[in-house]
Amino acid sequence: MNWAVIPARGGSKRVPRKNIRSFCGKPMIAWVIEALHKAGCFADIAVSTDSEEIADVARSYGVTVPFMRPDDLSDDMTGTTDVIAHAVAWARGQGREYDSVTCAYATAPFLRPEDVLKALSKLSEEGRDFVFPVTAFPAPIERAIRLNDRGDVSMDRPDHFATRSQDLAPVYHDAGQFYVGKPEAWLQKRKLFSEASGALVLPGWRVQDIDTEDDWHRAELMFRALGYDEN
């Protein structure tokens, strides 16, 4: 059996109430919940939150809020691994055992059911601790430029000044959408970014972090352009 957990803290500062703020006509978290439902592979979908308001919205879209997250796991310094480890420990305390546990971010409207299914297959077939989506940086990081306080330019990697971009290997970053993992990997708080993890490569046009108002506006434009709001 597979279990999905959506971490959704109530104290977002940069974009207030972003987990349940209206995004293309629905609370942000609703798009994620609906994608997980469409995947059709989860015995249960739960939300880990410290907010009764978020809990009420989540329940209205057909998921459970089996516990309220404790205060010591609800500040902006708490990592994802700690939150999911807490959820898995709670589930085991209730006698619930799962083959995999998926952490899906509440602010990942570009999450697609088919990506979750592919990641779950990789987790099982390749024997990984975790599998998660990544996307390539849009430009070679070896050609990065830094500016000091005066605006002076310097290369981060001057040894690559004359290297052609096509001769540089692509480098990837976490897409910030979801992680599928083995329950023991979550409980033992193993590293997400390690050789024991596998990656699902996504195109850049399906990835957008939402940390600022500018990000939010860009994400809505992308979401509508892709027709996701019509599904």
UniProtKB/TrEMBL annotation:
Enzyme Commission (EC) number: 2.7.7.81
One term of GO molecular function: N-acylneuraminate cytidylyltransferase activity
InterPro entries (alphabetical): CMP-NeuNAc_synthase, Cytidylyl_trans, Nucleotide-diphossugar_trans, PseF
Keywords linked to the UniProt accession: Nucleotidyltransferase, Transferase
Protein origin, superkingdom: Bacteria
Signal sequence bounds: none
Protein name: Pseudaminic acid cytidylyltransferase
Organism listed in the record: Algicella marina
